[in-house]
């Protein structure tokens, strides 16, 4: 949703800039991830949408659910979000923050879905190759989907590389039908 991203972006940038100055990128990452997860609960969503609660009460209740997982500065951030009626944006803020953090750290999370489990050597070669291609440190997560028949699908940020047999057959069928 473009609208949620547009609303969440300034908050994510502010949190990122603060975390960068404080040299606490991982701490803020953890705090935002926790807050985002809490905000996704159905009961918490009801709490956030309750018009009878003031922004201060929403923030207090929300922070009591989060417990000690969120430090004092992140608590102030949550209070600011509550005052501006933006607590529901926490998942998007957390996601945008992680993008900024990965860009700063020159890292990239890559998901590989293959037809068969990759050997350690294949995984290492793939990490090295993708690292050169994207000029980033690669963190690889793999899973197996036997319906691919062969090959793999790689999700690297916004890039998707479909090298699966199923994908190639679909492209061939599409070309034959047009």
TrEMBL record:
InterPro entries with a match to the protein in the record: ATP_synth_OSCP/delta_N_sf, ATPase_OSCP/d_CS, ATPase_OSCP/dsu
Pfam families cross-referenced by the UniProt entry: OSCP
Membrane topology: Peripheral membrane protein
SUPFAM superfamilies for this protein: N-terminal domain of the delta subunit of the F1F0-ATP synthase
Main location, first listed in the record: membrane
Keywords assigned: ATP synthesis, Cell membrane, CF(1), Hydrogen ion transport, Ion transport, Membrane, Transport
UniProt superkingdom: Bacteria
Keyword Transport among UniProt keywords: yes
Region forming the signal peptide: none
Cellular localisation: Cell membrane; Membrane
Physiological role: This protein is part of the stalk that links CF(0) to CF(1). It either transmits conformational changes from CF(0) to CF(1) or is implicated in proton conduction.
NCBIfam families found in the cross-reference section: ATP_synt_delta (TIGR01145), PRK05758.2-2 (NF004402)
Family per similarity comment: Belongs to the ATPase delta chain family.
Protein name: ATP synthase subunit delta
């Amino acid at each position: 949703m473009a609208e949620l991203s547009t609303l969440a972006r300034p908050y994510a940038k502010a949190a990122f800039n603060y975390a960068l100055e404080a040299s606490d990128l991982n701490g803020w990452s953890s705090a935002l991830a926790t807050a985002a997860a809490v905000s996704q609960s159905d009961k918490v969503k009801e709490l956030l949408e309750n018009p009878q609660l003031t922004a201060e009460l929403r923030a207090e209740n929300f922070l009591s659910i989060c417990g000690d997982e969120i430090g004092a500065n992140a608590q102030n951030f949550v209070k600011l979000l509550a005052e501006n009626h933006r607590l529901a944006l926490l998942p998007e803020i957390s996601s945008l923050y992680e993008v900024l953090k990965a860009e700063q750290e020159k890292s990239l999370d890559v998901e590989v879905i293959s037809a068969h489990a990759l050997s350690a050597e294949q995984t290492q070669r793939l990490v090295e190759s993708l690292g050169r291609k994207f000029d980033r440190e690669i963190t690889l997560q793999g899973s197996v989907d036997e319906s691919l028949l062969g090959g793999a699908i790689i999700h690297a940020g916004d890039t998707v590389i479909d090298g699966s047999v199923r994908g190639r057959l679909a492209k061939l069928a599409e070309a034959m039908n047009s």
